[in-house]
Amino acid sequence: xxxxxTASLILGGLALVAGxxxxxxxxVPGVTDTEIKIGMFSPLSGPLAAYGTDPLNAAKSYFEMxxxxxxxxxxxxxxxxxxxxxxxxEANTIVRKYINDGVFLLLGGSCSGSTVSIQExxxxxxxxxxxxxxxxxxxxxxxxxxxxxxxPGTQRATLAAVMQYAIxxxxxxxxxxxxxxxxxxxxxxxxxxxxxxxxxxxxxxxxIIPNNATDVTVPVLNVQSANPDVIIxxxxxxxxxxxxxxxxxxxxxxxxxxxxxxxxxxxxxxxKSLDGDTSGLGNFYxxxxxxAESMDDPELKPWKDLMVKYFPERPEPGIIGAYGFPHAMxxxxxxxxxxxxxxxxxxxxxxxxxxxETKVMxxxxxxxxDRRDSNRGQIIVKFDGTTVERVGGPYIxxxxxxxxxxxx
Amino acid sequence: xxxxxxxxETLWPVFIxxxxxxxxxxxxxxxxxxxxxLIVYVVLALGLDIxxxxxxxxxxxxxxxxxxxxxxxxxxxxxxxxPFPIGLVIAVLLSAGIAWLVAMAxxxxxxxxxxxxxxxxxxxxxxLAQTWKGVTGGVDGMRLQPSDMIFFTSRTDASNFRILAxxxxxMLLLNFLLIRSRLGRAMAAIRDxxxxxxxxxxxxxxxxxxxxxxxxxxxxVGGGMLVVFNSFIDPMNFTFAxxxxxxxxxxxxxxxxxxxxxxxxxxxGILPEILRSTMGDFIVWQEFVYGLILVLxxxxxxxxxxxxxxxxxxxxxxxx
Lengths: 408, 320
What we know:
The structure holds two protein chains of two kinds.
Chain A: H1 2-17, E1 35-42, H2 49-68, E2 76-83, H3 88-101, E3 105-108, H4 112-117, H5 119-125, E4 129-130, E5 147-148, H6 155-168, E6 174-179, H7 183-199, E7 202-208, H8 217-226, E8 230-233, H9 237-249, E9 257-259, H10 267-273, E10 284-288, H11 301-310, H12 325-338, H13 344-351, E11 354-356, E12 365-367, E13 377-383, E14 388-396, H14 397-400
Parallel strand pairs in A: 1-2, 1-3, 3-4, 4-5, 6-7, 6-8, 8-9, 9-10
Antiparallel strand pairs in A: 10-13, 11-12, 13-14
Helix pairs in contact in A: 2-11, 2-12, 6-7, 12-13
Chain B: H1 7-22, H2 29-54, H3 62-80, H4 84-106, H5 111-131, H6 133-136, E1 142-143, E2 147-148, E3 153-154, H7 157-180, H8 182-192, H9 194-199, H10 204-229, E4 232-233, H11 240-253, H12 258-278, H13 283-300, H14 304-319
Antiparallel strand pairs in B: 1-4, 2-3
Helix pairs in contact in B: 1-7, 2-7, 2-10, 2-11, 2-12, 3-4, 3-5, 3-10, 4-10, 7-8, 7-10, 8-10, 11-12, 11-14, 12-13, 12-14
């Protein structure tokens, strides 16, 4: 008796809590005459919340703006939001919940691990998934039908731009590389070597700096002794700061340094991290994918205002927030072009012919049937500690090198 | 308590297998995935309870063996084409071997010293998973193919759930058998008093080592189960966060009892989903409420949910 009662309690509880009330059956999941339901997720708590909050607000504010303008073909965008904490397990649970709730498509993910972990699922379920601001190459190379990514640009896009500027703008014949040996670092190196081979450039040093490095003396000295024409950093922000401090300490001031992969996500914070010492920035460059360097620059200010209008509790959104716009725009654009008879099939046909000038990113947001990396362009800027000057780009990576170079 | 299995102990595994086979006909993929997560939690918590609740030893290395189980099963399957059931057995043997070595080095330690030694081992395992890129994929993780079950390939949440339910039933049955065995009695004696156990003729070191090995084998099986229903694993799965969660499950449910462990695992495993469903508009508050519920339950139910239920039942009995 006790056994029976306990068993029924567990089964009943499991079913009840997991939400047995499914969405009403519809011909097209998540689409009614008046609504299009989108499932959104990003890290909103924990240590990586900073990567997810502003990009998510950017996408939501764009959808709100579209709704305020009357919606798309008479339908308003309705979105649900969940916190994936950048973990694969949470992302998998959330996506299954959204599929069960009957959303039309998914927009979410700020970390490569969580987005790659749901790739098989979204393709199996044939539900379009757009990464929010995750940019790992593994999600889009090789491309899969239902997963779309790389709003900020892949490592291929970034390093192609960096190498092209090193060669054209700085006359490099040799380069030295400092970076991690994770997926980002490995993908970055792939492009560096491919561009070096194409242009007959020597990679004279390749030193590993882990993301959690606390001392970079040896790798910096090794690169210094190789005496490259240009030093390329594929490090994230914290190790980039460590390297730049060593550059000053070891007097490496004459060698141009180009930082890629968000080594400098915000110039003010970057200078602060250097304790205000800008003496190492005399010959310093970095790559980024946006039309401007700050959310207060005239090109990005309207987008900042839009975010603040709908989310006044964050009056100073970080520049990383801008990465949340392009895929929201691409989704809206494709839904419009799919017409009033919106289905997953008509949406997929439309998204496969996407070319959107977002006025947020330096290059257009593009999707084709065989390409899922939406942003292929990066620009190079020179930063001396106070002013930022655009010196190169936008460079479009597949115009710089044949993509088939990377076919395995 | 000791001797042959009771009727309910025999029936529970049978019930789990039947429920595991039938539930996929009624549940959707979200519920089944959630069910898979909960099943893994139960197996992991049962294993942790063997070393902590049954043998009374404070060990933190459980999460390392969870990782070893996951990576070993995944690597055997992905790289060498070893079917899951065989891979899982090899992984358990490997894990047991490593656990025996760790146990030999650490069984002399007690209390916080044993805890620290096992923390060091767990940290080393985590570091290895992150840096041994050629084998584990490093921080970028490993993509997993659907599991080969020899006679079929498990591709859906429904079949994954069924497989995991069967494994849970086996692990639960083994747990009942262990508790009722001579070894189980020896573990309980050590938990209550090492000195008394020792003078009673129990080989304390050997018993503690076996408890550690069996507990680690459970963690390894939990890791292998993770591979069945996930298409990706990375070192983030095996950090101290899940280790603390498992410990919480034991404390909330009630350490040293199968019912308490199961209740704790299900409660703490499903709580985030309840908060997700009921507090959708207050995402940032979900973590706070989770912590609050945890603190309150530990404060108000120091012996766990099962301890409270047991005390109430005994009070009623004595009143009548």
